[in-house]
Amino acid sequence: MYKIKAICITKEVLSIYKISILGNACAGKTTLSQNLSKKLKVPTYSIDEELKTLKTTPFPTRQQVRHFSRELDKLMRKDSWIIEGWCPRIVYNNRFKESNIIIFLDVPLPVCMKRLHNRLLNGSLTNDIKPKVINRATDKIYTFEQHVKPVILSLMNKYWKKDQSKTTLHLTEKSNEEELIRNLKEIHA
């Protein structure tokens, strides 16, 4: 479903799948992780679901970050996984270290906003709650674009250049998700 902007894949990387899927809210992380999970037979974990009780914000306290990091580390100690979602900025480096495949869904901001509005307006929210939820989600989308995306791009660049044991995918726009899955399976075989 995404156009591959940049890719670096090595055969050694794929002895087991440890996949991080990153991207803004409404970028398609959950959909992609669920599809990859089915096709590759790998369990998927959504940070939003698994760690939702942590109530982290784009600018969390040190205590929140430490707790979040410990809980995320528990997930990453598993043999094989797909972890999707975004987290406090300072946690990304560890996520990159533990992953052997990093997929960044770099969906344009207007597309994320349109998906957000469609998702929330078609949901079961009451009219008095909708504006508050939309404002909070909109802030989250803009915060990601301004503060989190640069961190991800910097780490992608670092691992692209210095760590050939990682597969890094920078995906933009719509493309063929089946082709992505097929390529990952062929390299894994």
UniProtKB/TrEMBL annotation:
InterPro entries, alphabetized: Cytidylate_Kinase-2, P-loop_NTPase
Domain of life: Bacteria
Transmembrane spans: none
Database matches in SUPFAM superfamilies: P-loop containing nucleoside triphosphate hydrolases
Protein name: Adenylate kinase
Species assigned in the record: Priestia flexa
Lineage per the UniProt record: Bacteria, Bacillati, Bacillota, Bacilli, Bacillales
